[in-house]
Amino acid sequence: MLVALAAPPAAGAGEIMTQAPPRPESTNHYLFYLHGAYVERRGSDERYRYREILQALADRGFSVIGEIRGPGAVDRYARELAAQVRHLLESGVPSWHISIAGHSRGGFIALVAAAELRMRDLRYGIMAACGREGSLYHRPYLRFVEQKARAIGGRFLVMWDAGDPEAGPCDLALNEARAPYENKTLATGRGEQLFHRPDSAWIDPLVAFLRAR
């Protein structure tokens, strides 16, 4: 089940919506932002401030598309995301006005969508999404590398916090695809929870990367 997000825009901010608009504006910069698994189970709350993250990105001028997902298959969500991106493109939005970013499970869905879309011009922000060896998330990540990573298209910024024992670089997948990427290790000591709120430590480099052309 998808839950609508009611977040009033700040002055001069972009919009926040749950789905790509039926008639998008070609001059807008659309950013799909996908939350981590915590929100699937408990929603946006004081521990994972998803609505505040969307607002912070909208305040930077993006038209932000963010839904609250329920538990579900990664591949299904990735296909739905890819279909929305194709709708924007078919409606006249240039590819350099479309970006995708996600944290944890949301970042992994973004990677799978990149393999579905196979588009070199799209930019992706991947935060704490690729499992380190020995972590719970390493096996599904390796399965993705073996089965789908070669199809990945796009340009990537991969970020994780040095205090996170579970997540790290996505080099295996992105090297398999020969996709251009940047790694950025953050040193806040907050680990994966750094991305639970709109901290400038990760918002600033993400926005700079997505805006660069």
Mean pLDDT equals 91
- The helix content is 25-40%
CATH arch. level architecture: 3-Layer(aba) Sandwich
Q: Approximately what portion of the residues adopt beta-strand conformation? A: 15-25%
Oligomer: single chain
**Would you tell me which CATH topology applies?**
Rossmann fold
Q: Name the CATH superfamily assignment.
A: Alpha/Beta hydrolase fold, catalytic domain
Rg, rounded, reads 16 Å
Class by SSE composition: alpha/beta
The CATH class label is Alpha Beta
Overall geometric form? globular
SSE string, helices as H and strands as E = EEHHEHEHEEHEEHEH
Terminal CA distance? 36 Å
Number of domains: 1
Can you count the beta strands? 9
Strand order of the largest sheet: 1-3-2-4-5-7-9
Which regions have little confidence, pLDDT < 50, spanning 5+ residues?
1-12
Main sheet? Answer: 7 strands, parallel
Helical stretch count? 7
